[in-house]
Hints:
Elements: E1 2-7, E2 24-25, E3 28-29, H1 30-38, E4 45-48, E5 62-64, H2 74-88, E6 92-97, H3 107-114, E7 121-127, E8 130-141, H4 145-153, H5 159-165, E9 169-172, H6 187-197
Parallel strand pairs: 1-4, 1-6, 4-5, 7-9
Antiparallel strand pairs: 2-3, 6-8, 7-8
Amino acid sequence: xxxxxxxxxxxxxRMGGGDKGFRTLAGQSLFAHVLDRLTPQVAGVAxxxxxxxxxxxxxxLRVLADSLPDFPGPLAGILAGMDWGAQAGAAQxxxxxxxxxxxxxxxxxxxxxxxxxxxxxxxxxxxNGVLQRHPTFGLWxxxxxxxxxxxxxxRMRKVTIWVDRHDGGVAEFDTDPFDPFFNINTPQDxxxxxxxxxxx
Length: 200
């Protein structure tokens, strides 16, 4: 069983703060776009976010807070998801970012196909011949949660370093007509996303 976790633990400072996932794109919240794509691919979904979980009540999702203080980054969200997955009896979790509304509808299958011996895999695209990994979109075996917890305790913060430590695989996705991992960090990005939505 694979469970899905939407990573929304960031502080969204470039968007003026607040929860980016509630921003509207093409008449729906970013959360709605993300859940529409993720939910059919997994057995269940939870949200990684910090602060008062009641503000997400309308989503109907379990909210997983980071277990480490001071917003240590997406690895902490991945760990929170792994711990939840282990409690729920899942072998793996898949994470996606809350501000990336166009990610592929076959993400989970492609990550499974790309997983290395460790079972870890991340998504990637290629720009000007250079492979660009998108490590918040990844497949994570819950059996590695204690290893990740130790890495975070040791001040590791970069997802790619931990992925490389476990010889993680890479699932490469096409960028035609646009990068499916386009993410929304600024108000201008939200305008651009509206234009991209018309291309789908």
